[in-house]
Amino acid sequence: MKLFRRKFLHLAANTAALPLISRFARAQSYPARPVRLVVGAVPGSAPDVVARLIAHSLAERLGQSFIVENRSGASGNLATEAVARAAPDGYTLLLISAGNAINSSLYENLNFDLIRDVAPIAGIVSFPMVITVRAPLPVNSLADLIAYANAKPGKVNIGTPPIGSPQHVAGELFKMLTGTNFVLVAYRGGPPAISDALGGQIDGVIGTVLLLIDFIRSGKLRALAVTGAVRSELLPDIPTVSTIVPGFEASQWIGLGAPAHTPAAIIERLNDEVNTSLAEAKIKARLIDLGGTAFPSAPSEFGAFIAAETAKWGEVVKFANLKPE
């Protein structure tokens, strides 16, 4: 009887270990063919550049091609839906961004749920934005801007990219938290907003550091504050918004996601490889050149971050009554 019991327990233990062995083997053999990385932005854009940077690094580390597929349109929703509907086998990935979190409340009839249908893998980079004004404006700090705008209610105009862009909702968050009465003017992109600011048609621009830094360095635009949690390495002398508005943070972050139910072992392996890539000096330097900061995280941490961002921007969209263009 004791011999039978020992054999039974041994068999049960081996049987219980089979799923673990299977998951380990699957992760070790992954990827066995090219992996598709879907990007909801056009070639040459910041998300596309980041996608190609991380795809190249993953290809080198894993010995298999990572092919960037640009699927722009509907503010990135087409790309997200394509990945949400793809087979959860690790061979279709999504370059996920702040825009995805914003779109969750900005668009009412999406055919997917970001939190439910996309599994977080890892953060890649966080891009702070910067609040600027045109040089002739008698405003030298964020406190000055608040006072100036409130002294001229509804008369101060700040340009941003389109409604629902990270730059635009950052401006709406600032208005919500401070009660500052200025007007956000949404353009098709950052460059036309800059042109109008330089021409005096509007009073300032909220944009990415990389887009605005040459105009800041030339003195044509005056940087008042960066929107991230920490100062930008490209603008080390410019304070964060949070020094004036406690709790304020807004970034144009980018990370990696996969269809829900992708095997945990594959998620974990990709997370390890992404985080290892982000620790490399050349990758860090390239991200700094782009105006960003490496954003490594565990899958659970990245998932919690996405959920918090989705909730935060949902409140801002509701506050500002934003509708997609």
Describe this structure in words.
- By secondary structure, the protein is an alpha/beta fold.
- The protein has 2 domains: 25-127 and 251-320, Bordetella uptake gene, domain 1 (D-Maltodextrin-Binding Protein, domain 2, 3-Layer(aba) Sandwich); 128-243, D-Maltodextrin-Binding Protein, domain 2.
- Helices cover 47% and strands 19% of the residues.
- Strands 1, 2, 3, 4, 5, 6, 7, 8, 9 and 10 form a 10-stranded mixed beta sheet that branches.
- α2 links the parallel β1 (35-39) and β2 (66-70).
- The chain is globular, with a radius of gyration of 23 Å.
- It starts with a helix and ends in a 5-residue tail after the last helix.
What is this structure's SSE topology?
Elements (H helix, E strand, L loop, with lengths): L1 H28 L5 E5 L6 H17 L3 E5 L6 H8 L7 E6 H9 L7 H4 E17 L7 H10 L5 E4 L5 H13 L4 E4 L3 H9 L5 E5 H9 L3 E6 L24 E9 L4 H15 L2 H9 L3 E2 L4 H22 L5
Parallel strand pairs: 1-2, 1-3, 5-6, 5-7
Antiparallel strand pairs: 3-9, 4-7, 4-8, 4-9, 4-10
What does the main sheet amount to? 10 strands, mixed
| Count of alpha/pi helices | 12
CATH architecture of the largest domain: 3-Layer(aba) Sandwich
The computed structural class is alpha/beta
Query: What is the top-level CATH class of the largest domain?
Result: Alpha Beta
Q: Please provide the ordered H/E string of secondary-structure elements.
A: HEHEHEHHEHEHEHEHEEHHEH
Measured between the Cα atoms of the first and last residue, the distance is 75 Å
> What's the count of strands?
10
Q: What name does CATH use for the topology of the largest domain?
A: D-Maltodextrin-Binding Protein, domain 2
Helix content: 40-55%
Q: Mean pLDDT, nearest integer? A: 93
> What is the total number of structural domains?
2
Low-confidence stretches: none
- The proportion of residues in beta strands is 15-25%
The Rg value, from CA coordinates, equals 23 Å
Fourth-tier CATH superfamily name of the largest domain = Bordetella uptake gene, domain 1
- Report the principal-axis shape: globular
